[in-house]
Design goal:
The complex is a heterotetramer, with two copies of chain A (495 residues) and two copies of chain B (430 residues). Chain A has 495 residues and is of the alpha/beta class. Chain A is built from 16 helices and twelve strands. In chain A, strand 8 and strand 9 form a beta hairpin. The longest helix of chain A is centred in the last third of the chain and has 37 residues. Chain A is globular, with a radius of gyration of 25 Å. The relative contact order of chain A is 0.13. In chain B, strand 4, helix 8 and strand 5 form a beta-alpha-beta unit. With 430 residues, chain B is α/β, with parallel strands linked by helices. Chain B starts with 7 loop residues before the first helix and ends with a helix. The radius of gyration of chain B is 25 Å and the shape is globular. The chains are: A alpha/beta (495), B alpha/beta (430). The interface between B and C is medium-sized, with 21 and 19 residues. The complex binds pyridoxal-5'-phosphate (2 copies).
Chain lengths: 495, 430, 495, 430
């Protein structure tokens, strides 16, 4: 069952909702505003009754897979259980109804929460201070690079290059470019880890920073991280940690101790704030002492008991977002940390690693494992071994959907052909992992016996594989003015 | 421990299956010197104690009743239909990821497609994206678009644009080496003229004039608009602006100390390839059924990497969903009524406040919608007095604008009933 | 996809949830309680982690049809949209966290709400006072009969019979019997309405009351209601209104004006409190002046501004439920009434009647319509015309499930063979009614061309038709001690 | 208008299709003399105004913090996991009807089946039903079962059973002509002996002895039990009671001024056919898949009509679901910890209260779990004093029991932390 668009369900004469009346004597807009300041054509919003609207969105919801109902082994995304208590906490009127421009004296509780969260995050990653402003991981990467750049400027250095491993997530090079850096790619070695030789050859006085995630996107811990740090620092460059993989080692080790100078964290991965179908998240950035002066303003400071927002930060890179970040997400993450505690977070990472290795073991004879284990919290397999049957990673992904599982991340990282990146997280039971492995085994068997049939999956979902190529062609036609169908939005037939 | 699923038995069974004796055998790649004993954090709490502690923090904040909140400055108290939270609290929506697997994500994809259409309709522009972080980063992303599109490296910020938006714009521009100029005439060096309608003080600007001036200089016109205001005011598309951006908080999201909310961006057809972030489009399966997919991904970081239009990945989908539910609930007439009620009440309030001894309008010659600046005898004491009575008075804008000493901007929406205004004036008169 | 039982997912050693510790010095139960007072064997509750529990119930939820996603034309049940605002209202701490034994001075808002709700309900049905204590309709029926009996006792009468039409809902005779009355059935006439002749013949000095719902369960308004009332009252008996069908005429007419002495209302039908998969509901009973002294205690009274609970009611039938009824449901109903207002409620009933007649019209050539229209808020069709194809009402019902519609009520009322009872309610759009009619037409066509295939439906649901007969046999075997499988509960294999 | 879907166009199109000119043509069967102009009710309000009015009423109630609530009497403040509301607020559960169509109602049916099993496990009896309205009607329904089963028309209520339960029992019994006796020895006329464990005062009764006495007289033993207490105390099945009933509020439901909550009933195999209300059983489809269905319907009103075991139809499914989630969250050890923490705190409190001048235990020879009676100098002034400090003190039971003048029953659960007890005692000492 698919669902029509709200615009298609709309009917011209449906009553608008009951709303308050003005109940004051005052002019209407048309009385006082110049004609040409007024809107000419009413916006084409749908007109529906509340019961129709609620059913519409209820049906849309039922078309989604989600952690609430499905195993979601999406590598690099840490799709773990989102505690319902977090949602209750964020909904408290004492948080949800606060105006950002209230006097500080009236939001001491909120500032205290931000203060404690910053402390906790610093303790987990081993840094001195953190900013909670960035709205997501990529935003945090860029914020960190801005700080590194400002720091180097302050020391009269102009470093123009940022090194990024070939296995890095796309946001890394993009964030570097956005901050005005040249991106220099560092190669991975045969063992899936960064090649020290290549790194050394790319390092230079121009190098501002090396962006690294550890374990890397192959789920492998960079064994030589201390040598890497030494190398990088010896050239006066800084080391940046992409925290997307932090779930691998909370309580086991810390980026700060590894030598990282700046670290972003994805609260919507490691700290269970929900992904929301694509956000909102939160990407706080923690930094070592030398970068603290450059943190975005305001920071939260404790001055004799009172908490205040400190805007007077002469060396700050300024603001990276309005107000104080995604506060509602900070509440959720803090609630989670309180409930888990240091003991819980440590066990969570250990379970995440154990589950990944267990699942990897179950699948090692069915899919190619390009690198030796043990892995950390995720692993990357390859469907390369099935190519001669004409079966690709994408086919495995779609076949899994028909078996009530969401698909792993596929074709990332780019360094592995036909990559299938699996991250089970600590909140999936052994029974679920066993069932998933069983499903993969069946699909691989099917690939051997009847590869063609895999190309027709998924069959059980509201729609089959969608023709993105045809869609792209139609979009191009529109963008080139050869068609009036925008494809990227609904348009009323009569328009 | 909370949220963990493995029993001790499960763990040993799994270790055995992997073929190792203990957990440490799986952590061999981590240098011993880095290994921690434990985290310097207290042990976990029961849910009951956790919630008690969190609730205690919430209690340490003072919540001004919505009807007694006359402060805006970019974040507004408005009526939020219960329908909004009823939809966004559905786990199928809030526990899903970015819809990479289209067939299993039609709910999210279609909701985003509807959001894109709603924003395009509101702004009267061709195409809108799936969402951005907030209004501030939306302004910055728009400036980046203009920079890339025109190849020029200066943007002009015209008039009273939200000061925090300008700060964020500066941070973004610095990285790219873009000059941000306050005011002045656009020239051949100008990539874009950025203005806010209504502006930060609530006053109307000559959007049409600014747009034409920008175009005369070959620059783009970027309009930062209040999404409720366009139910009354000419939308960017009607006066020819190239890019419209804004903050969507008013579309069904609680203030929440400033976030999470949602930034929106829409543009003319010619600029679509420069848009940052996700775009959802319609597609069909082999059986001819319509579905929705992520489209034009070649603009994005995961494909284009350092040459992407933006680095944004996770955006603000769930907030976009809230906005979609809100706009669908309101429909064209509901939205207009919200805007008009706010307009009429704000004008009634402005008149009553102006009648107070020593209170006088600022820029009396300029029009406003539901927020307006007024000069008061002594802003700090006025606000203290109101706060003592549980009223959140106007915003003191002097902290950003030296020339606006003792100027407060007051705002009125459908939640500020006339009795609330009476209470406000009673306190001010007392 | 079906879902295992929580007991089947359970694993012996899963950690119990973190809970507060006593933190006091005090004895443990075993220290002070006699051995034989202590539990010997721990209860066999499942042991699961929160993520597993939440997924379990999320998956169970997805196995349900509900108004939120499906048209639910269940005759006599008034499955209308449940406003989400009602839920928000009932969840307010100012209501949800009230202890029933708080001092009256601390619950004035709650008492005010009950007072206003009583007033509003009285205005809708045209009576003098009402009790909010009954938990459901059947409970209300029984409460009303207790009052009628007490009233008649107080006048020295002993009336032992209650008349119930053959078309009445099963709760009517059951409630009468529970109150110690003989049940005397009154026949319906050919026009589907109660036969006055038969009624007259059954009325006697022994008659305590006639239980009637109007429109009756066939959806037909009892045209001769005034004569019926006259007849009943002339014998000194009372007239009881089963309010399940109140949705037919709010603002159009009132049971009180028709001559009914007592009226129950199903807040979970007419006033949009959710059905909850089978409750909780609320079944307030409104009465005319002469029955007021007999209302259950306490009642809410207004004494010089203050609201109080009045327990001193010498003639009261006593208590029918602990505390003050299903207060949370009263909050929802009051919220609904505030939002709808008199104008909204009247329009609601008119739309309900219009929709029923419209749908009836669409189907009149496909199903048998045993009685002439117009109908009120629902209508009863019959699948009798399909019997020669071996197709029964049940088959139509199951086939509708495969088309994403819930089924109408079937085989009730008993007076219509192969009854299909359809109640669309006012909150279903014309488009939905058209789609439903289309589905029925297709099914009827299928019945003609391929009746056998209908017996295999539903095919698209998690389970096909379940063999209730075999289940009943197994239950009997258990109850007769011939088997140890209770069937009515899960039992651990090893037990 | 709110919640209505038809547009004027829709209405006229439908009227036309039906073949009538106006709405009145469909109401011809209603005598003119009965037709109303309109309802004597105010017009409807916007959702914003509606919620404002309702919230204003809620504000006019005083909510005692859970940790400072020491009053029970059948309704208790306990920790409710957020998981409970997260499940019961799912529209698929709360907007479904009684599961008449099994194939499209497996969610509700399986949840009820799990609830039935959980209650059977708690009470250590064979079978439990799908739910009843509350504890009071559950006691009454159990008495009706005994009356029908034994053919005897007297029930004995032994000891301090909740007075409101007894009142409801009387109302039910009166209809059926059953005599309700307070105390006394069971005889050949006795259908059942009904007792509460722990009793209304919180004290333990000799459940085993009462059960044996009942059986010796050929009567049934009906135990009304606290569902948390049986984590510690012998459950009815262990001492041979025939029927167990009780109030399930403590299993995840907020007090809500007394409802809605859930009554439960369980019995021995021999009595199952006499059970009131819904029963769900396991069944299989043609493919051998297990599913769940409404079972033994022949007991019920819709089939058996006046000969049904009860008139109950709509019961309290959603509350039963809440209880199922709660019990599944707790598991056997969590439930036991909740019971033991309550036990230890209550005993600590009893000791501290007994040390107050003029305060002395009532029935000191009897044991209790988490609620206990204590005689105080002047109950009304004690409670006022506490209330003034925002503490909900013990329940004054004198209103029901003449012999218990100035007796308060105090209760303690896992929500009453030691600091809360300190505050309580500080106020009492002051
Ligand atoms: C390795 C890695 N780095 C960075 C990011 C970007 O984080 P966000 O999506 O929060 O911007 C992600 C998330 O997709 C990631 O997996
Ligand atoms: C006509 C009729 N009468 C009485 C009832 C009983 O109401 P309840 O289920 O609330 O006890 C119903 C509901 O099923 C009904 O349809």
């Amino acid at each position: 069952m698919t669902e029509p668009l709200s615009f298609e369900l709309s009917r011209p004469a449906v009553d608008p909702p009951r709303l308050p009346e003005a109940d004051v004597v005052g002019p209407a807009p048309a009385d006082v505003l110049p004609r040409d300041a007024l809107r000419a054509k009413a916006p084409g919003l749908p007109r529906l009754s509340e019961p129709e609207i609620m059913r519409h969105y209820s049906r849309l919801a039922s078309l989604n897979y989600s952690i609430s109902e499905n195993f979601y082994p999406l590598g690099s995304c840490t799709m773990k259980y989102n505690p319902v208590a977090n949602e209750a906490a964020a909904a408290l009127p004492g948080f949800a109804d606060l105006h950002p421009y209230q006097d500080e004296s009236t939001i001491q509780g909120a500032l205290e929460l931000m203060w404690r969260l910053e402390q906790a995050l610093c303790a987990v990653v081993g840094v001195d201070r953190a900013t909670l402003q960035p709205a997501a991981g990529a935003h945090g990467e860029w914020t960190a690079l801005r700080m590194i750049r400002a720091y180097q400027h302050s020391r009269g250095e102009t470093r123009t290059e940022v090194l990024v491993p070939d296995s890095a997530h796309g946001t890394n090079p993009a964030s570097a470019a956005l901050s005005g850096f040249q991106v220099v790619e560092v190669k991975s070695g045969g063992d899936g880890r960064i090649s020290l030789a290549d790194l050394e050859s790319k390092l230079s006085p121009r190098t501002s920073a090396l962006m690294l995630t550890n374990p890397n996107t192959l789920g492998l811990f960079e064994r030589e991280i201390l040598d890497i740090a030494e190398l990088v620092h010896s050239t006066g460059a800084m080391l940046y940690y992409d925290g997307a993989n932090l779930n691998a080692f909370m309580g086991i080790c810390r980026p700060g101790d590894m030598g990282f100078d700046a670290v972003h964290m994805n609260l919507h991965k490691t700290f269970t704030t929900p992904h929301g179908g694509g956000g909102p998240g939160a990407g706080p950035v923690g930094v070592k002492a030398e970068l603290v002066p450059f943190l975005p303003a305001p920071t939260v400071e404790r001055k004799n008991g009172e908490l205040t927002l400190d805007y007077k930060r002469p060396q700050s890179i300024g603001r990276v977002r309005s107000f104080y970040g995604n506060f509602g997400m900070l509440v959720r993450a803090y609630t989670y940390i309180l409930a888990m505690g240091g003991d819980g977070l440590s066990q969570a990472s250990q379970d995440a690693v154990l589950s990944a290795n267990y699942l990897r073991k179950l699948l090692e004879n069915d899919l190619e494992m390009p690198h030796d284990g043990p892995c950390m919290h995720e692993f990357v397999a390859s469907a390369h071994n099935l190519n001669h049957d004409g079966v690709r990673a994408l086919d495995i992904a779609k076949a899994l959907l028909d078996r009530d599982f969401y698909a792993p991340t596929v074709y990332f990282p780019l360094v592995v052909p036909e990559a299938i990146m699996v991250e089970p997280t600590e909140t999936e039971s052994k029974a679920t992992l066993d069932a998933f492995a069983q499903a993969v085994k069946e699909i691989v068997a099917q690939a051997r016996t009847d590869p063609q049939s895999l190309h027709d999956e998924p069959k059980k979902l509201p729609v089959g594989r969608l023709d993105e190529v045809a869609a792209a062609r139609r979009i191009n036609a529109y963008l080139q003015g050869q068609s009036e169908d925008p494809v990227l939005r609904w348009k009323a037939p009569e328009d | 421990m909370p949220y963990l699923v493995h029993s001790p038995e499960d763990r040993s069974a799994m270790l055995e299956a992997v073929g190792v004796r203990e957990m440490n055998d799986l952590l061999v790649d981590i240098p011993q010197s880095l290994r921690l004993e434990s985290l310097r954090l207290p042990d976990g709490l029961s849910e009951f104690e956790t919630m008690a502690q969190v609730a205690a923090l919430a209690k340490r904040n003072y919540v001004y009743p919505d009807r007694l909140t006359f402060r805006g400055g970019g974040i507004y108290r408005r009526f939020i239909p219960a329908a909004v939270a009823a939809v966004t609290s559905k786990p199928e929506f809030y526990t899903a990821y970015t819809p990479y697997q289209a067939e299993a994500s039609q709910g999210t994809l279609q909701a985003i497609y509807e959001f894109q259409t709603l924003i395009a309709e509101l702004t009267a522009l061709d195409v809108a994206n799936a969402s951005l972080y907030d209004g501030a980063t939306a302004v910055a992303e728009a400036a980046m678009m203009a920079y890339v599109h025109t190849g020029r490296d200066e943007v002009i910020v015209s008039g009273y644009v939200h000061p925090e938006y300008v700060q964020v714009l500066r941070a973004f521009s610095e990285g790219r080496g873009i000059k941000v100029r306050k005011g002045g005439e656009p020239s051949r060096k100008t990539a874009a003229v950025i203005f806010q309608q209504p502006d930060f003080l609530g006053l109307l600007v000559d959007a049409r004039g600014l747009t034409n001036a920008a175009h005369d200089a070959g620059a783009l016109a970027i309009a930062c608009v209040d999404p409720i205001s366009v139910a009354i005011l000419a939308p960017p598309g009607e006066y020819g602006a190239d890019i419209a951006v804004g903050e969507g908080q008013q579309l069904g999201l609680p203030p929440s100390l400033g976030g999470p909310h949602v930034g929106f961006i829409a543009c003319r057809r010619e600029l679509v390839r420069k848009l940052p972030g996700r775009l959802v489009g319609a597609a069909h399966d082999a059986a001819g059924r319509r579905g929705f997919v992520l489209a034009l991904a070649a603009r994005e970081q995961h494909i284009r990497r350092e040459r992407a239009t933006s680095n944004i990945c996770t955006n603000h989908s769930l907030c976009a969903l809230a906005a979609a539910v809100y706009l669908t609930y309101m429909g064209p007439y509901g939205l207009r009524q919200v805007a008009e009620v706010s307009f009429q009440r704000a004008h009634a309030l402005a008149e009553r406040l102006s009648s107070l001894p020593g209170w006088e309008p600022v820029f009396p010659e300029r029009q406003f919608l539901s927020e307006f600046p007024i000069r008061v005898p002594k802003s700090s004491s006025v606000l203290k007095k109101l706060s003592r009575k549980g009223i959140l008075g106007g915003l003191d804008v002097h902290r950003w604008f030296r020339e606006l000493k003792d100027v407060l901007t007051f705002t009125c929406t459908e939640v500020n009933d006339p009795q609330a205004m009476d209470e406000l004036l009673a306190v001010l008169r007392s």
